[in-house]
Amino acid sequence: MSDRIFAGIWLLLCLGGLYIAWGLHSEYSYEPVGPRPFPMIILGLMALCAICMLLRKPDTIHWPKRGTLLRLLALMAIMVLYGLFFERLGFPVMTAFLTFSIGMLFGARWWAAAISGVIMGAALFYAFDRLLEVTLPLGSWLS
Q1: What is the DSSP string of 60-123?
Q2: 87 lies in which domain range?
Q3: How many structural domains is the chain composed of?
Q4: By C-alpha distance, which of 73, 72, 78, 77 is closest to 117?
Q5: Residue-wise pLDDT tens digits, 60-116
Q6: Which among 86, 77, 15, 80 is positioned nearest to 51, based on CA atoms?
Q7: Which is deepest, 85, 95, 127, 142, by most CB within 10 Å?
């Protein structure tokens, strides 16, 4: 039953998003289609998936054990911290922290999680900032 409640709420959100996306217009005519198709397609596909969830036979629900729920709660808290300190501490530091934390949650040894965090933070920053030319914050603590 909970999956149908979720699907109904998600369908309403998708319909609201489709209504908002229909009103998207660009002041500049740099392309003939404009900014509307991408959100319309994505929201349309999500609405279709929500309808499929509403029409299918519901599954039996098996709640995860207490330890798994606590790890999920910790993961949510880590993601909130990542978002809060992303600009202040910078992409490399926060990505290293995120990778380290996820590694520890999944049972990695602390040194393996730390090495992975440092490598992921540096490699992803280099890939996005230098190769893809996506500007990412280094952190205000460096300034």
Answers
A1: PP-PPPHHHHHHHHHHHHHHHHHHHHHHHH-HHHHHHHHHHHHHHHTT--HHHHHHHHHHHHHH
A2: 66-142
A3: 2
A4: 78
A5: 778 889 999 999 999 999 999 999 998 889 899 999 999 999 999 998 999 999 999
A6: 15
A7: 95
Residues found in the chain: 143
Tokens of 25: 């217009």
Rg (CA), the chain: 21
- For residue 79, give Cα distances in angstroms to 12, 28, 116, 140: 26, 36, 18, 20
Residue in the structure block whose two tokens are 């209504």 = 19
Q: What is the pLDDT of residue 114?
A: 95
pTM: 0.60
Query: Is position 60 within any domain?
Result: no
Residues 21, 31 contacting (CB under 8 angstroms): no
Section 117-141 average pLDDT: 86
